[in-house]
Every structure is written in structure tokens, then in C-alpha cells.
Amino acid sequence: MDIRPRDDAPRWQRVAYRVIFESDTRAGRAFDIVLLVAVVLSVLAVMLESVHDIAVRYGPFLRAVEWAFTGLFLIEYVVRLLVVRRPLAYALSLLGIIDFLAIVPALAALVLAGSHYLLAIRTLRLLRVFRIFKLGRFVGEGEFIVQALKASRYKIMVFLTAVLTLVVVVGTLMYVVEGGQNGFTSIPKSIYWAVVTVTTVGYGDISPVTVLGQTLASVLMVMGYAIIAVPTGIVTAQMAMPANSAKPAAPVAPAAPAFKQAVCPACQADGHRPDAAFCWHCGQPV
Amino acid sequence: MDIRPRDDAPRWQRVAYRVIFESDTRAGRAFDIVLLVAVVLSVLAVMLESVHDIAVRYGPFLRAVEWAFTGLFLIEYVVRLLVVRRPLAYALSLLGIIDFLAIVPALAALVLAGSHYLLAIRTLRLLRVFRIFKLGRFVGEGEFIVQALKASRYKIMVFLTAVLTLVVVVGTLMYVVEGGQNGFTSIPKSIYWAVVTVTTVGYGDISPVTVLGQTLASVLMVMGYAIIAVPTGIVTAQMAMPANSAKPAAPVAPAAPAFKQAVCPACQADGHRPDAAFCWHCGQPV
Amino acid sequence: MDIRPRDDAPRWQRVAYRVIFESDTRAGRAFDIVLLVAVVLSVLAVMLESVHDIAVRYGPFLRAVEWAFTGLFLIEYVVRLLVVRRPLAYALSLLGIIDFLAIVPALAALVLAGSHYLLAIRTLRLLRVFRIFKLGRFVGEGEFIVQALKASRYKIMVFLTAVLTLVVVVGTLMYVVEGGQNGFTSIPKSIYWAVVTVTTVGYGDISPVTVLGQTLASVLMVMGYAIIAVPTGIVTAQMAMPANSAKPAAPVAPAAPAFKQAVCPACQADGHRPDAAFCWHCGQPV
Amino acid sequence: MDIRPRDDAPRWQRVAYRVIFESDTRAGRAFDIVLLVAVVLSVLAVMLESVHDIAVRYGPFLRAVEWAFTGLFLIEYVVRLLVVRRPLAYALSLLGIIDFLAIVPALAALVLAGSHYLLAIRTLRLLRVFRIFKLGRFVGEGEFIVQALKASRYKIMVFLTAVLTLVVVVGTLMYVVEGGQNGFTSIPKSIYWAVVTVTTVGYGDISPVTVLGQTLASVLMVMGYAIIAVPTGIVTAQMAMPANSAKPAAPVAPAAPAFKQAVCPACQADGHRPDAAFCWHCGQPV
Question: Per-residue confidence at C283, pLDDT binned at 50, 70, 90?
Fold first, then answer.
């Protein structure tokens, strides 16, 4: 939804919008950088306060810093609401919600003890870091990565479903094999172990002890080894694809050598090319 | 083997087959999704019951759910047997066996205590999840991944043999080097360690302690580092290969192509299936 | 060196050579497979004997099996020496030495207690497994992988040198940072830790405890993350390269965009193309 | 800055410069190799002295070796300062600083106890190892890797920023979820854990214990699994890109090319350096 102020909006509103929401002016870029520094500093304050030794010494100072930033972000949030054409649309957008969540915990901490730690979600504001990639030469590069991931999203979803299924099946098997012992105390925990293993993280907080369990784990590891090739292959193939590959001369898209779903009405064979006019098996029209 | 009911089979049988086994009708798709949800829910019930705290509280309820699903799957299995042309062919097919195994453990639990846990193999029914990829736009994507893995299968087998040999040789060496101590208590255990290491999982349940052992382990790790490039390279090269790269100028394709190389003698179209008997474009024999 | 028997050698010698050393006859293939099974079985026997529980029960039987295989391999070794034209050339070849080492430990065990475990090197005979790839359709596939690795060997050596340097520098740094404690008890041990970390194995037997150490470790891990892309990229790029890319039309090899080493005599600029005739900087002949 | 001695410098100075700084003469290559061996030996001495058992026995000898190398490097450093045209420019260059740092700690150890361990930074001199890649056939290979990484540097920076943000957000979340326990005692420590996890290192010194924590960790691991595809994809795509892919038909290269895109207006040659002022082929301005 278009949240830009109308052309007949007051001048201050249009200027403020330009500075706060856009980054194609000098002032806009400056605002972005100031905001970014503020976000990083406020996150740093929350982080440092969580360290016991630092909290003991500098606690009051850090809390003051947090309150100052909360105040600043509150003002910023109100101004954002004021300058947009549709305040509700902004407030309900992803960035709007994140901006809101960055203020709430501190305010909630006034009433509710402990909710203070929810300041942690302020870190989500770090996502604004990616605005700086709109500045200068990173545009194309960031775009390139996002584009490649976007183009691969269905393949990656299929892949993740396969991994998920594998992990559930193997996790359950290991629960049975290890007999609910050696850390494999429940199926969900065994699945957690399978994820830790297939992704090659391998904490070692849970690890198989029985001979059969170790054998099964070895098979899973080697499979994980071969499996890791798949997402890499997908993304790489996407990235290596020449940018101008979408020329009309290529009738079949290189990414998806899909087959026609319908079976041949004459011989029931399936697996036809998407553009097939005749059955590859019996030669009848499909 | 063709398990579709004959054309002269009763109408209800042909309709039921269409709904249960195919997914190209509205009812067929709905059945697939209902079945999928049932499988996921029944697996979830088995999983939750394995968690001690949950079993104590909701045990009876979860067991009731499991029995309900077992009943449903039993009915489904019988119906499947009834509607196919050759019940035995279906019962002995991979999916048929999995469908059968999903019911048996619960029934066996009536007679045999403990066999209840074999419900775990019900998770194998999750493989039916992949049926949903037959719905909609995932077809080509899933096909693409499977195709690339299929075309790489011989290379991956050679690679896995090399890894297996490496792991046996290094595992045995480590057993000798560490002197049957520090967890390297037998050669199979040392091989298990070598698998854990070369796949970069690294639980740390067994790790070398002697200087020579740590040196040997370092060499293995760096090798594993270089080795991991191989399956990735294989799959990626396969995926990056343009679908229509099979131009006549290349007499020997560097990797197994998904399509028949020859062009149609009648219309010169290429991109035929490897087992095509007729041109997909003009219908002439190829 | 040519070890094939002369054409005027006795017929039995030429036939035996064909069977034992080659695999292009029916008998040759059969011999290879029998030998392979024997190697796998003998390795299995050594492996099983190392497991304490099994050794207690089946120790005498397993030792008998080992002796039987040692006898067989001894006979095989002697026959190999008899049928080749130059016995010494075979005995000093890599495979010849491995074949010899597979017999020696068992014989040495007669005199020297403990040397029995050296049977482990018999596993090296497993390398003969790769002979089966000479049978059938694996030829091209295995060749493909070996070829890609061979073509990448200089790049991989450069890469490994870089990793080695990184690991020594970071390992030494960590030794100083962690102050010789928390497992970082010496520089070699710290380097071992760095290898475990940069390869993403991560046993956890040694892990940083100080804040500075954990920060440095984080940097190393993220670097390892980016670094792992390099060997994968090298091998993949090699594999994805079309087999017939070496056509005369391509004057500059795609793999090495090397620059001319000499500096321009006029302006001292370097970084010229290998085939440059003029300086890119000042336009003078180079 | 040009640090080569002037043409009217004394002959000994020009010859010494040639030997010490260049490697295109026989003496220069010999000097490089001797220096390399000296660096490796001196680093080895420092390493060995850090091992307690070795230090107890060979301490005095190793310290003598270190002093000998320190003396040699001091002499070498002074000679380097003497032969260059601008000693300050060399002293302030990266290699100059490293050469200086390699001597200082040993000298400082005379005054200050403990600073002895700073000899560790002498390992940085190992970077000179890469000089040997200027010798012979490694030139192009090393150049190739560096070039590919250079061309990918902006993409890798974007990627690392994304990983950094992810790690901060997830680390903070885990701190809240695990409630400051189970090793997640502060946000920085939780971020350290997130780095260990997302890079698939997985020491296991800190690992989630709560159900929610393990679930979140599983998601992070699977994401890390998919994420690792990105840098690999970037570097591989860069490496797989044919060197002469810059055909006039492609107006915007998808990734930064190593060579200037424009063809020479005089002779139509392409493949110029990005900063070329003259054609490498015909010498005309480009």
C-alpha cells in the first residue's frame, strides 16, 4: 500500500517523509546512518547489561542509555506515524511492527518486572542494517544474492521437506535403537539429535553409544555429507546462470526440466515434456 | 506393473482408484491432503507419547488417538487392496509395504508388549509427503533435484567408496596410534570416529589425545575439508548444466544427460527422453 | 616399468599374468572379485578381533581366519613375483609394497608380540577396491572425479598453504590469548584446535573460555565458513567446465587469468596479460 | 610508493635490492627460499618451546636458536632499510611492519619478562610463504583464487552482514529462552554460541537444554545449512565464469569482471585490465 504523503500534503510532511523513509537525498542518507548507529548502540547496551560483571558496575549507566534510546525511538515512531499517508498501513507493516516492538518492552518494564529482557527483540531493528546496502555499490550485489535465493526458493523448500522427513524418520529410529537412553530420552529429543548430526554441527551433548546406534549415525552422517551438496548445487547453479539467459531463443527454461503431468490417453505412459505434442512411448497425440 | 483397474471394472472401483491413487482430480487432491494430515498427526501422537512428562498426563488420550489412526489406516489399506487390479502387486510394492508396516505394530502390540514402539516406522509414511509435490508448481523443482541426483549417482557411489576406504584405513591407524585408549577401544569404534571427523560432525565423544593421534586427525580433517568439495562439485556441475546442452557438436556428454541425445530424424527436434520410442514433437519414431 | 611377461615366456606365466594383473578377461574379473572379497573379509576379521567382547569369545577362530588369509596372500604374493617379467620392479611399486606389507605383520607376530596389530595396515589393500571401478560403467565416472581433482591440484595446494598459515598464526595467537590454559597448553595443541575449528569439525575437547579467545574463535569460524567456499568453488568450476572447452578458438585458458610477471621497462607497471605486447599503463612495448 | 633504488644508486645497492626484494634472478629465488626456511625454523623453535616437556629438556638450546634467528632477522631488516630508496616507506608498509614485529619481542624480552611469548607474532612472517607462489607455475593459480575472492568481496560482505545480524538476533533470543542458564550466561556468550552453531562447528561447550531452546537451535542449524550454500555459490559462480565472457552482447556483467569490458577502438582486442589506459595488443589508447 502506498504510504507516501499526498502531493497536497503540507511541505514539512513531505520533506520529513523523504528524510525518514527514503535514502535518495543527502539528509535521508544521513538519517539512515544516524538511525543505524543508534540501533547498534542500543543493542550494544542491552548486550553489555546482560554480562553480570558489567551490569554490577555500569548497570545504572547502561539502563539510562537504554531509556534514552527508547525515548528517541518512541519519538521516531510517532514522527513516522505522523508523516505517512496511512498510519495504520505503516503500523501493520513488518518494519512498522518491528519499530513498535523496539519500544514496547522498555515501557512494559515500568509495569512488569522481568519484561525488561524483551528488549532483546530490539535486535530485530538490526534488520535496518540492510538499508545501507541501498547506499552505493552494494545494491546490485545484495540484489544478486536475494534474487538467486528467491529463484531457488521452491527447490530449497522441496529440499528442506526431504531433510525434515529424513530427520523425523532417523530420529524415531534412533530412539528405538538406543532404547530411550544415552540422551535419546524421547522422540523429539532424538529428532533434535538428528538435526544436530545431519547439519554436521555435532555438539556431542547427545551421541549414540550402542553399536547399532553408531552404525546408523554413521550412515546418517555420510548421507548428510552428500545431502549438503544439494542446496549448494541449487544456489550455485542459480548464481552461475548468465543474467541474460532469459532470451526468447531458449524455449525450455534451463532450471526446470519438468515433465507434463498428464498421462498418455492411449498407453497411460507419463513423464512427457511440458511441451510435448505426442506420446514418447506410443506416438499418439497427448 | 499396471495396477489400475480394468476399463470394464465397476464404476465405483475406477472412481475410488482415481481418488486414492491419483491426484489429478479435485477429490484426489483432497484425499492426498487429508491423508497427509492424518499421517502427520499420527506421527505427532507417537512422538508426544515418547516424552515422559506428556505420557504421564495425556497417555490414554494419545493412545486412543493412535488407535483411531491405526483403524483409519487399516480401512484405507483394505480399500487400496480392493480397488487395484492386482492386489498382490500393490502389497509388494515399496509404498504398499510401508502402508502395511504402518498398521502392523499397533496390532502386534495387542499380543506383544513393547512392540508398541515399532509405531515409529509409521514415520516412514511421511514419505507420502512428497506426493504433495505432485500438486502444483513443485513438480518441476522436485523433479529437477531428483534428476540431478540420479544423473550423479555413479559419481557419488565412486566418491562414497573412496570415503569408506579412507575411513577404514584412518580408523584402523588411529586405533593403533592411540593404543586402544581414549575412546578408541576397537577398530569399529575408531572407524565411527573417523566418520564423525571426516564429515565434520565432530561430536567430541571420542577425540585423539596423543600428539601423533592429533596430528593424524588434523590431516584427516583438512582432507575432509578438501573432500567435501567433491560431492558438491558433482551435483552443482550437474545442476548448472543447461538442459539443452546436448548439441550435436559434443559427441561424448561429460555426464549422464536426462534426455536422449539424438534428434528426431523427421523434424530434428531434440530433448527426447532416454527411453523415448517416438518424437514428442511430431510423433514419428526416433 | 613394463612388468608384463615377455611374449616368449611360458604359456602358464602369460595366462596367470593376464588373470592376476589384468581384468579384461572373464577369469581376470573373477580373480579381482575373489581377491576383493578376501581383502574385505580379512580386514573384517582384524576389525572384529579388536572388539573386546568378540575377541574373548571368537578370538581363536578369528586368529585362524587371519592366518588363513595371511597364507593365501603369501601364496598370491609369491605367484605375483613369479609371473611378472621384473619381480623387483613389482616388489618396489606402490601396490607391490602394499601387498608385501599385508603379509609381514602376521609373520612378524610369530617373533614379536604386539606387532600383531600392524595387521591394520592390511586395510591399505582395500585400495584395490578401486579396481572394480575398472569394471563396467564406473570407468568414466571415476576418471571424471580424478581428472577434476588433478586439474585442480595446484589451486588446492595454494589453498592448503593458505589454510596452514592461517591455522599456525591463529593457533599461536590463541595460545597467547588463553594463556596456556583451558586446553591450549602448547602452541602445537592450539594449532590442533585451530584445525578442528576452521574445518568446522569442532570436537569441543578444547574450546576457548576467555572473552577475547571466544571473540577470536568466532572470527576464525566465520572465516572458515567463507574459506570452505574456495575448494568447493575450485572443484566445481573444474567439473562444470565443458569437456571440449579446450578448443583452439579460446586463446586464453579460462582457468588461469594469469598476468605477465615482468614489469614494464618504461613505467615499471606490472600485472600485464601473459600475451600482452604493449604496456596497459604507458603504451610502450613490453 | 616506489621503493626501488634509483638508477644512479651504487651498484651493490641495486644488486642487493634485486636479490632481497625481487625473485626474478637466481640469487633472488635462492634468498627467498633461504628466508622461508629460516622463518619456518624460527616459528618451529617458538612452537616447540611452548610444549612443557620439550622446554624442560631442550629449553636452553631452543632459546639459543631463537636468539640466532632474531639476530639474523635483525641484520636482514637493517639491510632492507639500507637498500631501499625510501626506508620510511618500506618500514611503514605492511610487510615492513611485520618484519619489524618479528624482531621486537625477542629484544623486548630482555627488558620485560613474559613479552617473550609475543614471538608468536613472528608467525606472521609465514605470510612470506606466499612469495614462493611467485615462483613457477603457481602464479596463475594463486592469482586465480585471489581474483575470484576479490571479485566476490562485496557479495561476501553483504553475506557476512546478514550472518552477523542473524547471529545477534538468534543469540539474544536464546539468552531469553534459556533464561541465562545452561551456559547462555550473557548475550555475548549466546552470540558466541550462535556463531559456533551457524558455522556448523558445534563445540558443545554450550548447548541448549530447554525444549524451546533446542527447537530454536534446530531452526538455526537448518538455516545455517541452507546459508552455507551462499558463499560457496558466490565463489563458485565467480570461478566458473569464463575469463573471456565479456562479449559485447552483455551490457551489464552480472559480477565484477577482472578485465575492462570495452574493446580497443583501434584493433578490437578485448580483455583489458579495468584500469588500462592503453591496449595491450596494439598499444593505442583505450
Answer: low
What is the rounded distance in angstroms from the CA atom of residue B163 to the CA atom of residue D103?
Answer: 45
Question: Distance between CA atoms of B161 and D126, rounded to whole angstroms?
Answer: 37
pLDDT digits (tens, 9 = 90+) for C50-98: 888 888 898 889 888 888 988 898 999 999 888 888 888 888 888 788 8
CA distance A109 to A63: 12
Say how many CA atoms lie within 13 Å of C132 toward its Cβ. 14
Residues of A in contact with B126 (CB under 8 A): 165, 168-169
Within an 8 Å CB–CB cutoff, is residue D200 touching chain B?
A: yes
Within chain B, where are the H helices?
11-21, 26-49, 52-83, 87-92, 94-101, 104-111, 138-151, 153-178, 187-198, 211-227, 229-240
State yes or no: pLDDT of D246 exceeds 80.
no
> Closest residue of B to A155, CA-based?
B141
- pLDDT greater at residue D137 or residue B126: B126
In chain B, residues with a C-beta closer than 8 Å to the C-beta of D234 are none
- Spatial separation of the C-alpha atoms in residues B228 and B234, rounded to whole Å: 11
Tell me which residue has cell 502392523. Answer: B104
Contact (CB, 8 A) for A43 and A123: yes
First-to-final CA distance of chain A: 45
Query: What average pLDDT score do residues A219-239 get?
Result: 83
* Residue written as grid cell 515399496: B94
As a whole number of angstroms, the distance between CA D236 and CA C26 comes to 44
> pLDDT tier at A275 (50, 70, 90 boundaries)?
low
Inform me whether the C-beta atom of residue A50 falls under 8 Å from chain C C-beta atoms: no
Tens of pLDDT, residues B133-166: 665 556 667 777 778 888 888 888 888 888 888 8
Q: How close does chain A come to D275, measured CA to CA in Å? A: 18
Q: How confident is the model at residue C113 (pLDDT cuts 50, 70, 90)?
A: low
Q: Among D182, B147, D63, B88, which residue's Cα sits nearest to residue A257?
A: B147
pLDDT at residue C247, as a whole number? 34
Residues B3, B87: Cα–Cα separation, whole Å: 8
A248-267 burial, b for 16+ CB within 10 Å, e for fewer?
Answer: eeeebebbbbbbbeebbeee
**CB nearest A232 (choices: D157, D202, D233):** D233
Q: Would you say D221 and D213 are in contact if contact means Cβ atoms under 8 Å apart?
A: no
Structure confidence at residue A252 as a pLDDT band (50, 70, 90): very low
Confidence of residue C218 (pLDDT cuts 50, 70, 90): very high
Q: Subunits touching A (CB < 8 Å, at least 3 pairs)?
A: B, C, D
What count of other Cβ atoms lies within 10 Å of the Cβ of residue B16?
Answer: 20
Dist. CA C36–CA C22, nearest whole Å? 14
Name every chain D residue with its beta carbon within 8 A of the beta carbon of B236: 236
Residue B279 reports pLDDT greater than 80: no
Distance from CA of D165 to the nearest CA of B (A): 25
Contact B247/C at CB under 8 A: no
Contact between chains at B218 and C192 (C-beta distance less than 8 A):
yes
Name the residue of chain A whose CA is nearest to B202's CA.
A202
By C-alpha distance, which of B203, B202, B239, B252 is closest to B224?
B202
Which residue stretches of D199-271 are H helix?
Answer: 211-227, 229-240
Strand, helix or coil for residue A2: coil
Domains in chain A: ranges and CATH: 11-135 (1.20.120.350), 146-244 (1.10.287.70)
- Cα distances from A45 to residues A55, A65, A114, C261, D162, in angstroms, run 10, 7, 17, 52, 21
Question: Does the pLDDT at position B9 exceed 70?
Answer: yes
**D29 phi and psi, to 5 degrees?**
-65, -45
Nearest to D269 by CA among D254, D283, D250: D283
